[in-house]
């Protein structure tokens, strides 16, 4: 009886320890997700601060691109107003803002003087570095979210997650069509499968005699070319006035046999 009580107590202690360890791990993962998100939020604010200076610098050289500047300003205000929203909502706003910034940088290519402006180049470099840090923080955040959500769905950790109200976290994924789009490849051969050449065609003409063979590299004409019939020896009875039976026929470059 004492042994049974000891075994039961040991099992209860082991389950309690496993419960505490699993709960603490959930708390640690949740805090890590929050910390990684704060790092992303810092870089997003840094980009919000850079955009007005960049727009004003570009406006000095490309004043007639007003619709582009207005779109960037509108989407920046929309992204700033999305603070406190879910990561999915923030990602949607950031994706639209990134597309407007990309359109503005494309319009800059038409102004060589602006591309040599040191102030513009410095702001562009700083914006690029900020976006690189945002991308790195996004990968780190999404990796932590993936591990956390997997534990919430897996057994037996899902029992602890449901008991203590641990909910799944949202991913921060910016939809960038320029990265996800598949490059279009154009092939010159029309009417054939991509990369597959159409089979060679036989030229129109007399095809009743002779032999044909495929065109080989170095030939001057494509498709099949026709070879003249090979000279054969006379068989059977020779024609009147011709050579005797079995005699070889005329060779190239020799006059035909005219008889005796």
From TrEMBL:
Its membrane topology: Single-pass membrane protein
InterPro entries assigned: LemA-like_dom_sf (IPR023353), MamQ_LemA (IPR007156)
Presence of keyword Membrane: yes
Localisation: Membrane
Main location: membrane
Comp. bias regions, Low complexity: 217-238, 248-260
Record Pfam families: LemA (PF04011)
The keyword Membrane belongs to this UniProt entry's keyword annotation: yes
Signal peptide (UniProt feature, chain positions): none
Segments traversing the membrane: none
Keywords of this entry: Membrane, Transmembrane, Transmembrane helix
Region (Disordered): 192-260
Family per similarity comment: Belongs to the LemA family.
Protein name (record): LemA protein
